[in-house]
Design a protein that fits this description.
- The protein is built from nine helices and 14 strands.
- With about 375 residues, the chain is of the alpha/beta class.
- The longest helix has 23 residues.
- It is elongated.
- It starts with a helix and ends with a strand.
Length: about 375
């Protein structure tokens, strides 16, 4: 009996002591429940005692994906250029043979009151697919053309050429409609896929909104003269902001290049030629060229006055091919450490260690090789990020 009393007293004493310890020691539940994290990325090597995350990833280069958005100026002055592009588009497609590509066409028309600062309902004569960044439908009833389509060249040439009944207003807002199209098509089953490079091609003989906003005199001085100064959404900065919001220029594996078939800035001979053909209409495509020359959307600027669109389109296609086949996105959603020699940034191609700035450069969170890599090549990246 005495032993039982002693045991009970001992148990109560222990229980009291534990209650005092627990009661006097604050518990940080966030720390006790927290596990070492790599922000959800499986390629991260957890280092619990380190202030860094260590990412090691191996990727095999497979059939590249490419999404193409053509932004078509549907004003009456563009008939010849549209026909030329349709006739020569095979030169572009030949460069990306073997790619898993798809293509959509939008116009430069803005009509919706939610988007337009000067609603043009009086000239709204086309179905909704013809404005506000919506995609035109091809003759097969679909709005996305695919590499697997057997009649793709014929379908493209018929759709890029706008018949008289479908011609636009002449208030070209291509940067705005391109931003809308990318936003509207950024979904499963849309034009813009989650792992693709996006190539945007502008075809126009005017800058945004005609660029001749101060020339509304003479023949233009009438009640239908509605051209305004370019608004915020017509400017390159808006497009760049949109692709960031859509994660089209980040670690997701997606990137954007912008190409412009325009009257190149300072090409006075082309400007004169276009204006002589189009009753004085035509302007340097300065804002489109600005996008094509931006480091985030670097592409090509080509002349709409070229006598051979085949050459121009082949060069754009070659650029896109090399861009797609020369870059690998980093995972991790973080900026790699580059200034710590004990944690080097390493890239391997088929098990061979490459040299930064010789074999590749690092552009934000993308490795860009200085030469095209091939399908079947294996790329390994090994780098650190601060937690």
């Amino acid at each position: 009996m005495e032993n039982l009393r002693t045991l009970a007293v001992s148990f109560l004493t222990l229980q009291f002591a534990l209650s005092v310890i627990v009661g006097c020691s604050p518990v940080d539940f966030s720390k006790t429940k927290e596990k070492p994290s790599c922000n959800g990325f499986d390629t991260c090597v957890v280092e619990p005692t380190s202030e860094y995350h260590h990412f090691v990833e191996t990727k095999q280069v497979d059939s590249p994906t490419l999404d193409i958005l053509i932004v078509n100026d549907t004003s009456g002055s563009m008939t010849q250029e549209q026909q030329e592009m349709g006739n020569r588009f095979s030169s572009f497609l030949n460069q990306i043979a073997g790619f898993d590509w798809q293509l959509g066409i939008t116009t430069m028309e803005i009509y919706d009151e939610a988007y337009a600062d000067d609603y043009r309902a009086s000239t709204k004569k086309n179905p909704s697919t013809h404005y506000d960044g919506n995609l035109l439908k091809f003759a097969n009833g679909r709005d996305i053309l695919k590499a697997s389509d057997s009649d793709k060249l014929n379908l493209f040439s018929k759709r890029i050429a706008i018949p008289t009944a479908e011609m636009g207003s002449g208030d070209e807002r291509g940067i705005f409609t391109a931003s809308l199209a990318l936003t509207k098509q950024n979904f499963a089953g849309g034009l813009i896929r989650h792992d693709s490079h996006v190539a945007v091609i502008f075809l126009t003989d005017e800058d945004v909104r005609g660029a001749r906003v101060n020339d509304c005199t003479g023949a233009f001085n009438n009640a239908t003269c509605k051209r305004k100064d370019a608004r915020e959404k017509d400017l390159p900065a808006h497009f760049l902001s949109q692709i960031e919001q859509l994660n089209l220029n980040s670690n997701t594996g997606r990137s954007v290049s912008v190409h412009s078939l325009i009257i190149p800035p300072n090409d006075s001979a082309c400007l004169t030629a276009q204006r002589s053909l189009n009753y004085g209409n035509g302007s340097y495509g300065a804002k489109y060229a600005e996008l094509s020359n931006n480091s985030s959307t670097k592409g090509m600027v080509k002349s709409i006055c070229s006598s051979d669109y085949g050459t121009e389109l082949a060069q754009i296609g070659s650029f896109v091919k090399n861009r797609v086949m020369s870059e690998v996105a980093l995972t991790g959603n973080c900026d790699p450490v580059l200034s710590d020699s004990s944690r080097p940034f390493k890239v391997f191609l088929n098990d061979q260690l490459l040299t930064k700035d010789v074999d590749f450069i690092l552009d934000a969170r993308r490795v860009i090789f200085k030469y095209a890599i091939q399908s079947g090549d294996v790329v390994k990246t090994d780098f650190y990020c601060k937690k």
